[in-house]
Amino acid sequence: MLAVHEELLREFREFAASCPTAEPLMQRISDRLHEKMTRYNWVGFYLVDPAADGVLIVGPYAGSFTPNARIPLNTGLCGAAATTGRTVVVDDVAKDPRYLAGSPLVKSEIVVPIFVKKKLAAELDIESYFTAAFTPAEHEFAEACSNVVANYFASAEK
């Protein structure tokens, strides 16, 4: 992991320790990743809709375009991450038929599912205007950021 990754993770963990709810934590992560990571052109969270089984709804985000507000769990890269339970990294979204366009500028995407007690709670979605923006180090970093949120959710349920 890069030094900037470790610095941001430390910040997120410290913020999580005193955060009143998950929403400001997710907003802080979205804002800071968008601000500090130059190839992260859109960063946000999708949450499992408590009112509609099988649907993700947009949560806190930062970026230059309006995201898809609702995504069925069987649709797009977010749906692929949700149904497989694994991080999805796509180096060129134009070559992946699962891609659900949020902006024509997006070239690559990473989606990390967030589980609490083995149940999908949310996803971290990061989109870039550059192809192949998500190296193995970026993949590890995105999963570590997601773990901060997963740990927050788990501790809030106790």
How is the topology of this model organized?
Blueprint: H1 3-18, H2 22-36, E1 42-48, E2 55-63, E3 70-72, H3 76-84, E4 88-90, E5 108-116, E6 119-128, H4 136-156
Antiparallel strand pairs: 1-2, 1-6, 2-3, 4-5, 5-6
Helix pairs in contact: 1-2, 1-4, 2-4
Word description of this protein:
Strands 3-2-1-6-5-4 form a six-stranded antiparallel beta sheet, sandwiched between helices. The protein has one domain: GAF domain (Beta-Lactamase, 2-Layer Sandwich), CATH 3.30.450.40. The mean pLDDT is 93. It contains four helices and six strands; from the N terminus they run H-H-E-E-E-H-E-E-E-H. The chain has helices at residues 3-18, 22-36, 76-84, 136-156, and strands spanning 42-48, 55-63, 70-72, 88-90, 108-116, 119-128. With 158 residues, it is of the alpha+beta class.
Identify the overall geometry. globular
Task: Classify the helix fraction into a percent range.
Answer: 25-40%
- Mean pLDDT across all residues, rounded? 93
Task: Tell me the β content.
Answer: 25-35%
Task: State the order of secondary-structure elements, H for helix, E for strand.
Answer: HHEEEHEEEH
- What do we call the CATH topology? Beta-Lactamase
CATH architecture: 2-Layer Sandwich
Text of the CATH class: Alpha Beta
CATH superfamily: GAF domain
Q: Which strands sit side by side, in order, in the main sheet?
A: 3-2-1-6-5-4
Q: Detail the poorly predicted runs.
A: none
Distance between the termini: 31 Å
Global Rg: 14 Å
Main sheet characteristics: 6 strands, antiparallel
